[in-house]
Task: structure prediction
Amino acid sequence: MSRACTAISSAVTAALLLLGGSSLAMEPQKESEAQQTRASEGSELYETLQRVTHYRNFRGLKIPTQVIGQLARAQADAAVAALSAQAEQGNGDANIALVRVQHWCSSMMSSRQADPDAQIEKLSNQLPEDRLQRVATVLQAEAEFRNRARASCAKARFDYRAIEARLRAAADSGHAASATELAQFVRDPAQKQALLEAAAEKSYAPAIYAKATNLLVAVQRGQTTENVSAIRELLKQAGRSIPKAKLDLANCMAVGCDGHPADALTARAFGIDAARDGEPTAFLSMARMPWGARLPREELLAWQYFGDRLNEAGCLGDSYLSSSIAFAQTIALLERAQEPEGLEKARKQAQELWQQYGPRAMRENGCTKQINSN
Result:
């Protein structure tokens, strides 16, 4: 609802109250209670979105759930204090988390505050009314969260020199996670590669994934033609613990990006497994990539229902808004192409998929109640 419409509605309500009608006097109270309920639900959902976002951001690191909860509630100063205490005691994972929280705070401080009303107005033709109302509460909660996060980040005490010194020392001592983290910030390509190689030799999945990604980018840019076939093996190794790597493998195999002939049929198995893990980008890839075209249309629609349900539970993190739009458009397109029998089959299959893989997808994304508890 635009501000103009809200103002008109408020004016009409006030005029009716002045008439003294007792039955009319109850309506604003009911509306206010409904608004408060929606706002509370929006805040609760947005906290889940942030919790999932940080859980995914810390994948591969042993970070206390209490710290993740603090960040989800925009208590960056408390989270930084807890992580700093652990990092000073030699906890390399906590020190890496400080690096990532530092960058998160920087993005919070530098990002422009969008007007929720303007955003909703733009989305009014892209989402159904019930979903639009839910998105509106999330956008409002996001605006409030960002204000709190900025204030909290401003109070957070980052010892930048100490963090960097600890990161370099840990990398030098053979801490695979620190070496992989440091590789993102060094400019010398040879040094970057050496850091990743050292971490990958210890079977550290993020380092293996980074090697695969770097090689794939270099091939796509025409910077190298050597060892192209290694991309597939590296992605397979990383995909054992990183769902995104599993999806990248499926997409790569489907188009033959690694020197092998395109193999959409084999790729499909990896893509579906990434969807079972609840990888946020798996569902859109499924609708667009050749491996997804190998699926029956009812099954493809069922997986979109699955992903949409996962997103509405908050399990896709801060991609909630873009995912809501993508699911709304994709589902509408697929539904139009189905007969009533096909729609019923897709809905039934979606329910079966959720019962079978829903808990797994929620666990992988850190949005189960057990993981959320503090």
Observations:
- The chain has 20 helices and no strands.
- The two ends are 37 Å apart (CA to CA).
- The first helix runs from residue 3 to 18.
- Residues 1-26, 370-374 have pLDDT under 50 and may be disordered.
